[in-house]
Amino acid sequence: MSSTTFTVHTTLSPSEVLDLFTDFGPDRADRWPNLDRSHFEVHDQGPGWAEVTEGNKMGWERERYSWDAAAGTVTIDTLDSNLWGPGSGWRYRLTPAGDGTDVQVTLTRHGKSLQGKIVGALIPVAGGWALGRQFSSVLRKAESR
């Protein structure tokens, strides 16, 4: 198992961050850099949850998103993937902070394929730094809209 935890700050409110994470509309691939349109499909969704496939040519995941606006949490559990096995996923905690929101991100990966095991081995070493930069970039773009 590989995991990393990091926190990024944004001037967006917690509800705006939640909307960014849980907007599964046709522009989603434009907002998230590791997602392409050919690997994005919404299978089903309802109040507080969605089941989607997301990814790119390197890796894809069928995931179940669950969120609780009052608690400020978003949970993404991997249901199937070419890279990641059971127990993989993302956890977000959105905390009001000063002029915006601190977003605590926890990523857990269980490599399923050889490629997943190799990428997974890098997560504790560089995952927080690389993913933190990527999340900051996504949030800055959303701030400027």
How do the helices and strands line up, and which of them pair or pack?
Layout: E1 2-10, H1 14-22, H2 28-31, E2 41-46, E3 49-55, E4 60-68, E5 73-81, E6 89-97, E7 100-109, H3 114-143
Antiparallel strand pairs: 1-7, 2-3, 3-4, 4-5, 5-6, 6-7
Give the ordered list of helices and strands.
Answer: EHHEEEEEEH
Q: Helix share of residues?
A: 25-40%
> Average pLDDT value?
94
Q: How many helix segments?
A: 3
Q: What ranges have pLDDT less than 50 throughout 5 or more consecutive residues? A: none
Report the structural category.
alpha+beta
Strand content: 35-45%
Give me some keywords for this one.
145 residues; alpha+beta; seven-stranded antiparallel β-sheet; 3 helices; 7 strands; 30% helix
Descriptive overview:
With 145 residues, this protein is α+β, with helices and mostly antiparallel strands. It has helices at residues 14-22, 28-31, 114-143; strands at 2-10, 41-46, 49-55, 60-68, 73-81, 89-97, 100-109. β6 (89-97) and β7 (100-109) form a beta hairpin.
Short description:
This protein has 145 residues and is of the alpha+beta class. It has helices at residues 14-22, 28-31, 114-143, and strands at 2-10, 41-46, 49-55, 60-68, 73-81, 89-97, 100-109.
